[in-house]
Design a protein that fits this description.
By secondary structure, this protein is α/β, with parallel strands linked by helices. It has one domain: Beta Polymerase, domain 2. Helices cover about 25% and strands about 25% of the residues. It is built from 5 helices and 8 strands. The strands form 3 sheets. Strands 1-4-3-2 form a 4-stranded mixed beta sheet.
Length: about 180
């Protein structure tokens, strides 16, 4: 089953407000899913006999922001955060990429982490992937059972893969740069 067929089924089930009018054409195409629909769409993709996306290969956060004002005009994107989901059906041997997009900051308030629903109740492995996206990109996953840092120490300040992250000169007496 290809992405067009998958999207047609999702469009019929959830509507364009949830899954967009069409997949995004690219070398590696994807379906954009509304954040409020990601858990329902994911559950359907896992449970529907035609889909059987029983494996979440990867989930990652991406920060689309150009901190250099001189380069911002050529950047070509409005600043935003994306959560990217790479799915596989081991049984049916097909793959799918989903993306959920949102603001860089909750309520456009700098420092307030953006929030997305957790899919850890759909695929257990999302627990670890969402913790990594939280730790490194600063994405808060609502209803996550154990959202805490996974790579950085608990007292680390900030999220190192944010484009505007300011790396500390020192951490616990150890010089960083």
């Amino acid at each position: 089953m290809d992405i067009q067929e998958i999207h047609s089924i999702l469009l019929e089930k959830f509507g364009a407000a949830a899954v967009g009018n069409a997949p995004v054409a690219a070398t590696d195409p994807w379906i954009t899913v509304d954040a409020d629909s990601i858990v329902d769409v994911s559950t359907f993709l896992r449970d529907d006999e035609r889909m059987q996306f029983d494996h979440l290969n990867d989930l990652c956060g991406c920060d689309y922001f150009e901190p250099d004002p001189k380069k911002a005009d050529k950047f070509g994107h409005d600043p935003h955060i994306e959560v990217v989901y790479q799915l596989s059906s081991i049984t049916l041997k097909h793959r799918l990429k989903l993306k959920v997009m949102g603001p860089r900051w909750k309520n456009d308030e700098q420092g307030q982490l953006p929030e997305f629903p957790s899919v850890s109740g759909v695929w257990g492995i999302a627990d670890w992937h969402e913790r990594e996206a939280y730790d490194l990109v600063g994405i808060y996953f609502q209803n996550h059972p154990n959202l805490r840092r996974i790579l950085c120490p608990e007292d680390w300040v900030g999220h190192a893969l944010r484009k505007d992250y300011d790396f500390p000169l020192e951490y616990h007496g150890v010089r960083g740069r």
